[in-house]
Write a structure and sequence with these properties.
Helices cover 48% and strands 19% of the residues. By secondary structure, it is α/β, with parallel strands linked by helices.
Length: 324
Amino acid sequence: MTILLRNELPPKMNTRILLVDDDPFVLKMLKVSMKALGHAYDTANDGEEAMDKLRQSEFTLVLTDLTMPRCDGMQLLKHIKEEYPRIEVIVITGHAEIHGYTDVVRAGASDFITKPFGMDELEAKISRVIREQTLIRKLEHLSMCDMLTDLYNRRCFEMKLHEEIPRAHRQGYPVFLALLDVDRFKEYNDQYGHQAGDRVLQDIGRILVQCTRENVDWCFRFGGDEFAIIIPYATAAQAVQIADRILERYSHESRYASTSLSVGLAQFLKHPGCTWPEDIAELVTRADKALYTGKEQGGNRVISDSSLSCLGEIEAATKQPPSA
């Protein structure tokens, strides 16, 4: 049974194309072509205007001329590959003798079109790039997804943590990490079998998604019967409330004998002189220690690491939800 959760990427990618050319006639022709092909689009008259549009909106593909004032196509291509590596670029030029196919592909372009061009060629090249983007997106999702729960997996957890933590430090917002473990899961598995155990894990995945904030918090199957949640843009009290809500929901909904959940909660702290990997590893260690403190105390509780009390918002304390 497949449970579709919000962590799952949409099967179809929404394509939005940025058209960049300083020739009004060519730009008009490209706009007519995009309308005929059914693609959403925006336009820019040169590379500098295109950079502004890229900062303001999301695009999946850029079609750009090479020879333009202020910022030419090769400069724009270099900027896109450095700042927006997931955006594909098709270069369109009437001066193939200046920059050829090999030059632009080496610079990172997906394809090359020489002016004048026909509608069939334009459609074929755009369709190929979109097919490749869609395939890459699906493969990335499969490599990041836990197939049992449809949550993100441990590999994705490591990548997201190393992405979110430095950004949070730069922008000055807090990040909390919750690690969760199923109490007495082995006994349940031994008594009822692995298929029943799988249903427990699937239910937990559903509860995590329902009890966290859509498009803000990140839910993962950490491994085995362990789960993780990255909680940015929250106070310590709010992070504890999220963890409490998960325990209460599982306690009230659970049909799984004597199982319960334990949660260890910690906040990221940047220590002077430490590297990012050291500080991130320390965050995971602190959340893990808090988790196993809760399990040693009988489970079915949230244990907050002392980092939360350092903020002066709440006391580091044991919180136990009401019984079902």
